[in-house]
Design brief:
Blueprint (H helix, E strand, L loop, with lengths): L2 H20 L4 H16 L3 H8 L1 H8 L38 E10 L9 E6 L19 E5 L5 E7 L4 E2 L5 H8 L5 E2 L2 E7 L6 E7 L18 E2 L2 E2 L5 E4 L2 E3 L9
Parallel strand pairs: 1-11, 1-12, 8-9
Antiparallel strand pairs: 1-4, 2-3, 2-7, 5-6, 7-8, 10-11
């Protein structure tokens, strides 16, 4: 076993053992926990569980001193290879897509404010009812998923609808555990992005809608004040907001 595995696995197990002793965990509770581990595996919910309850600490710790814009968790609903959109940069959607239309635009720069041309913004989001295409019944494959590129001045634009908040699945083991602890299962309304440009650290982030419920009680603990956006009415029934992204330089590859 490597030193790293020895240290990390040993430390995690020691902390579980301490929690058992400090909380007087019973044999019945241990057996129930074992069954719950089995249920999470059978339901295919380990990625969900990890992204809800663990990923935010890895993200916060890994990027604590990063220059540029704030990131947050990736979550389990990203799909690679969404189509690259041309003007007017509208995320693919149903003809009768519900929800308030919104456009958001801004610039992608390096950490010193220099524009990054041809940066890529990979965007995905839930629909107005809080459903992700390919993961939840309702929206067709590819709905509200697309990529846009910045122009020579680092500017981008995306047209979409304002997403709705959503709960993690309530009927699976992660949702049941959340209910047993009497925690809120909701995520506030948000738009996911991965912003990338050559020579820079990709930024995995989310933009949270200021009018959404649950900003203070996100089950995934992923909200950061810097990531809350303020869509303003545009007078034609729609909304608009701006958001600029600053990317840190790529991390130097570790020496072999
Ligand atoms: C999401 O942002 O889509 C998400 C994150 C963590 C768990 C579930 C969903
Ligand atoms: Fe999400």
């Amino acid at each position: 076993m490597s030193d790293r595995a020895n240290q990390l696995i040993g430390d995690i197990l020691r902390r579980i053992h301490e929690a058992i002793v400090e909380n007087d965990v019973t044999y019945e509770e241990y057996q129930a926990a074992k069954q719950w581990f089995i249920d999470v595996g059978e339901a295919g919910e380990w990625p969900l569980f990890g992204d809800v309850y663990i990923e935010h600490v890895v993200e916060e710790h890994s990027f604590a001193n990063r220059e540029g814009s704030q990131g947050t968790i990736l979550g389990p609903f990203h799909l690679p290879d969404a189509p690259v959109l041309e003007a007017p940069f509208e995320l693919p959607h149903r003809p009768d897509e519900t929800g308030d239309k919104t456009v958001f635009r801004g610039r992608v720069t390096d950490a010193d404010g220099n524009p990054l041309a041809n940066a890529n913004l990979d965007v995905w989001q839930a629909d107005a009812e809080g459903r992700y295409s390919s993961f939840m019944p309702g929206p067709p494959e590819g709905n509200l998923r697309g990529q846009v590129r910045t122009d020579a001045d680092g500017r981008y634009e995306v047209r979409t609808v304002i997403p709705g908040p959503y709960t993690i699945p309530l009927d699976g083991p992660t949702g049941k555990m959340t209910a047993a602890a009497e925690w809120s299962p909701w995520r506030p309304a948000h738009i996911h992005l991965i912003v990338s440009a050559e020579g820079h650290e990709p930024l995995v982030t989310q933009l949270f809608i200021d009018s959404s419920d649950y900003l203070d009680s996100d089950v995934a603990s992923a909200v950061k004040p810097e990531l809350i956006v303020h869509p303003e009415p545009t007078g034609d029934g729609g909304f608009a907001f701006t958001y600029d992204f600053a990317l840190a330089p790529a991390r130097t590859p570790a020496m072999a």
